[in-house]
Amino acid sequence: MQRFNSTLRRSLPTPRVAARKPFAMQYMSSSMRRAISPVLLLVVWELASRTGLLDPHFVPPPSVVLTELGRMIVSGELLTDLWASLRRILMGFAISVVVSVLIGALMARMSLVEDLLDPIIELIRPVSPLAIYPLAILWFGLDDASKVFIIALSCSFPVILNTYAGVREINQSYIQVARSLGASSVEIFFKVVLKGAMPQIFTGVRLAWGISLIVIIAAEMVGGTGGLGYMVLNAQQTFRVDQVFAGIIIIGALGYGTDFLFRRLCHKLMPWHQQFRGR
Amino acid sequence: MINTQSVRPSPGSGHRIDIEHVCLEFENSRTLESVQVLDDVCCHIEPGSFTCIIGPSGCGKSTLLSVVAGYLSASSGMVKIDGAQVTCPKSDRMMVFQHSTLFPWFTAADNIRFGLGVRSRRHESRDIDGTVAAMINLVGLDGFGDRFPHELSGGMRQRIEIARALAVNPEVLLMDEPLGALDALTRLNMQSEILKIWEKTQKTILLVTHDIGEAIFLADQIIVMSHRPAKIREIIKVDMSRPRTRENPQFTALGQHIAELLNATF
User: Fold this and answer.
1) Which CATH number covers residue B201?
2) Rounded to whole angstroms, how far apart are CA atoms B96 and A58?
3) How far is B151 from chain A (nearest CA, A)?
4) Is the pLDDT of residue B5 over 60?
5) Is B52 domain-assigned?
6) What confidence tens digit (pLDDT) does each residue in A221-239 have?
7) Which of A25, A120, A256, B190 is buried most deeply by CB count within 10 Å?
8) What is the SS3 string spanning A174-203?
9) Mutate which of B96, B99, B105, B160 to disrupt the A interface (most A C-beta within 10 Å)?
10) DSSP 8-state code for residue B11
11) Into how many domains does chain B fold?
12) Is residue B97 included in any domain, yes or no?
């Protein structure tokens, strides 16, 4: 192979002028290059807003937004809303993941369970959780319970479907071997089936987390009793556009930060899995 | 130093296998034609002996092994292990496959521990950690216990696979082309390794291969099978002292004989 390459190279004409790499490729690291466009965006935005090119009432300059964000963090009002949203997500998410993994795995292993549950799941799945939320308010009131319910419901679909697929894809020879080694059905379920489906389950869990971040904001806008969604809507209605931007930044940071934690957790829990190796 | 003596069963252990008039037919689910895979297979395997099954690829060697393991049941005839008829998979006979079936989510040691830790075996209250270490030592992989399967080479994975099977102390070890996926050099080393393990543990081993040299190198008895439907062409007793060398004229002569039976060249 190597010899072939060198013969090939010899037979090709040498370009007279070597192509020069662009400055950014030559002298900057990848992470530096990745900072270029966000920094540029901020600078242009700041200038446009300061010079009146963009109306600062609708698009306040980033410096104003960040100052307001800082003030809201220090005063604690932002953390109150952040915690309100996070608390609801965590409760709904935790309940949902435990139940949905069991449902998904049982559906994949027992065709009776699949036949009984699949039609219901497929009927409810395409309905936007927000269409169901008014019902949840009627049943559970405007407090946390209705939001926890709607989060749990919308988290369940990706987890059930991914668990189902993961369990279905497990190599049957693992189950055969486990049985030969004397494992009982329960042992096979927990030590082989669930273990083997872990990567897929985690994919579902990550998707569910992303969905719950979206749904909670919308739910808090509709049935507002505090939380980030309520805060953003409230800021818009009182024409505090800087606070709207501050809220959006926090929501973005929350999503990015938690997904980072998820990936680290995957790596810790599944050091054997290809996808998470070497990160 | 780990004492491998503790896991060695008394010499002469390992069960006798009787394969009696086994026939097997499959129904092709698409054409609904029935295909005969095994045709009146009959043979007896002495306790603690090493038997190789050789035959053209696709002839039904592996199917026969699956019947012995209890994964498939014969259409007629039966397999008896130590006089008892085989009806389902059991841990008195363990199968080792060509492609690793090690659980990728467990380390090598945890793979071996799996069979020892199942509830049905808990009353045996053995020294599980000691047995795991002894098994790793038996297959010559001391220090590799905490590696995941993907961190091991193909040959190492097969050794751990054998260790996992032996850990539950089966009487019979069934090996379905265990070295088929390895490169030629590793393959030769592993042949000696398997022989060493067999001599230490005295299990009854039934090994499927399509490598004539491998069969002669390993076996006390070689079962040569014909093309589908698989019948036994000949059962050859190999009366050569071990270690056997491929330069031995007896080795070559036997190889040519088997090759003729299989219409192959040796």
Assistant:
1) 3.40.50.300
2) 70
3) 9
4) no
5) yes
6) 998 788 999 999 999 999 9
7) B190
8) HHHHHHHCCCCHHHHHHHHHHHHHHHHHHH
9) B105
10) T
11) 2
12) no
